[in-house]
Amino acid sequence: MSSKQFFDHPELLEGETPLLDLTEATRRFPTKPSRATIERWIRRGVRNVKLATVMVGGRRYTTENAIREFLVGQQYTESEYARTETKRDNLSKKEIDEKARV
């Protein structure tokens, strides 16, 4: 995969948090996703939340904090993120954004 498919987050290099390669990152999730799933979360995300990564020396890395933010960012109640497409279509983007900010 070319690095142009990913969004780099150089802020991951700041601080004391150790970098995790994607293989190690799979072990930090509760469900132990495959590497392909991790790469999909980086590219496409889940519920408009993408896993933050950075490219260092031709390899992609993330951090435990980025994983935590990714997981927390997906947590919506039923009213904030409708499960069916029909319900989701009925909610305007503005309503969803307003509820996400609260």
What is the fold's blueprint, element by element?
Blueprint: E1 20-21, H1 22-28, H2 35-43, E2 54-56, E3 59-62, H3 64-73, H4 85-90, H5 93-101
Antiparallel strand pairs: 1-3, 2-3
Walk me through what this model shows.
With 102 residues, the chain is mainly alpha-helical. The chain has one domain. It contains 5 helices and 3 strands; from the N terminus they run E-H-H-E-E-H-H-H. The radius of gyration is 15 Å and the shape is globular.
Shape: globular
Computed CA radius of gyration, to the nearest angstrom: 15 Å
Mean pLDDT: 76
What proportion of the residues form beta strands (DSSP E)? 5-15%
Helix/strand order: EHHEEHHH
For the report, how would you describe the main beta sheet?
3 strands, antiparallel
Kindly state the percentage of residues in helix.
40-55%
Q: What is the rounded distance between the termini?
A: 37 Å
> Got a strand count?
3
**Structural class from helices and strands?**
mainly alpha
Total tally of structural domains: 1
Number of helices: 5
Low-pLDDT segments, ≥5 res: 1-5
Strand order of the largest sheet: 1-3-2
